[in-house]
Design brief:
20% of the residues lie in helices and 42% in strands. By secondary structure, the chain is an alpha+beta fold.
């Protein structure tokens, strides 16, 4: 057997050639151990960071649930005693959507026309661990100070919502401005911007702008919000580098040592160009615990950054007593929208119903998409 005896070992393994091979093998092993150690440290840092992020989000979730409970209690008392019943759906909810040919994104809470193609302005590459990162072509300024790699601020521009940029302050920092500048590697035209603040429901996006040839622009339908949002707008050209600017308001939470800190963060930011399909429909099931005899109010929360021309509407909705729309009760094309309903709509089957179907139609106008976020229906 090779190397079994001392003499054989001397002859076969101590020769200059074999010695070089052994040295090469040990160098490879040493290199592999070093790389494995670096990888283990990388994973350990990731786990520590994720653990901290989970702690912040769990604290914020508790706060959010208490707030929602109070709102629902107040709404239930108000609508039951004063105005009547309330049916409400928003696009963060997927369980009530029974069919959809559009693009329903429950992460950002909207339904738009289907995407045919999309081009992000983020220049991405795969690092040595097989994970996507943004290149250093992106510049990031936080609170007036530029940050350089390595820095977890790049976690918000890696097109990966599982990674998060988070920073804390011992006292309330006020509004913290973040500016991202991206090279126009793919297109000098954009029509969509995404912000996904962290912790969800806590850190507030108070201002948002995208860069254009006419300066910083506020996207159509922008709302101050602590929740993920994607905004669509008319195509905007930029001759230089594209950019996104936003301000964040911190949320007070506790760190691992029990100290009160003010937390801001962002899971994902993107600015992109999206090509849309022409039309889409989707149906939402609205269920009530009470009998619906009369519709008194209908309002769809939607945005459209364009001019409505002629009789073609970017968004229309019908309320029906059945899912195929064959028993229409309300139609935004023929009835007012929002529907004030002082007299109400009483074309409901005798004896009333406990379920309504909201059937939406979306139509592309001038290349733009309508964006539906919610619907509110009141009844008695």
């Amino acid at each position: 057997m090779r190397g079994a005896g001392f003499g054989l070992y001397d002859v076969e393994f101590r020769s200059p050639i074999e010695s070089d091979r052994i040295n090469d093998a040990f160098r490879d092993i040493y290199t592999d151990i070093g790389e494995a150690t670096i990888r283990a440290q990388y994973i350990e840092n990731k786990i520590s960071s994720i653990g901290s992020d989970i702690s912040y989000q769990e604290q914020q979730q508790t706060i959010n649930m208490l707030a929602v409970s109070g709102i629902l209690t107040a709404a239930n008392t108000h609508y039951d005693t004063a105005v009547g019943g309330l049916l409400y759906w928003n696009a963060y909810n997927i369980s009530s959507v029974v069919s959809c040919t559009g693009r329903h994104d429950p992460v950002v809470g909207d339904v738009s026309l289907p995407w045919r193609q999309a081009w992000t302005q983020l220049p991405l590459y795969k690092n040595e661990y097989g994970e996507y990162e943004s290149t250093s072509d992106v510049t990031i300024t936080i609170g007036g100070t530029g940050v350089l790699k390595p820095h977890d601020a790049w976690d918000m521009v890696d097109n990966n919502p599982e990674t998060t940029w988070v920073t804390t302050y011992p006292t309330d920092p006020g509004l913290v401005e973040v500016i991202l500048t991206m090279p126009n590697n793919f297109s000098n035209t954009v029509n969509s911007v995404l912000v996904n603040p962290f912790p969800v429901g806590g850190c507030m996006v108070t201002n948002l702008y995208y860069d254009s040839d006419t300066g910083w622009m506020v996207p159509d339908g922008f709302e101050v919000s602590p929740y993920p949002r994607r905004y669509y707008f008319s195509r905007s050209s930029i001759s230089g580098n594209s950019g996104v600017k936003f301000k964040l308001k911190a949320t007070p939470l506790y760190d691992s040592l029990g100290n009160l800190v003010y937390v801001i963060g962002m899971k994902d930011v993107d600015i992109s160009l999206v090509e849309f399909g022409s039309t889409a429909t989707f149906t939402v099931k609205l269920e009530s615990g009470n009998t619906i005899n009369n519709i008194t109010y209908v309002n769809v929360g939607y945005t459209f950054d364009g001019i409505e021309t002629g009789n073609i509407k970017p968004m229309s909705v019908k309320l029906s007593a059945n899912s195929d729309g064959s028993s229409p009760i309300y139609n935004s094309l023929s009835d007012a929208h929002p529907f004030p309903g002082t007299a109400g709509i009483s074309s409901i089957p005798a004896g009333g119903v406990t379920t309504l179907w909201a059937i939406f139609t979306l139509t592309k106008l001038n290349g733009n998409t309508p964006v539906v976020r919610d619907i509110t229906v009141r009844y008695n």
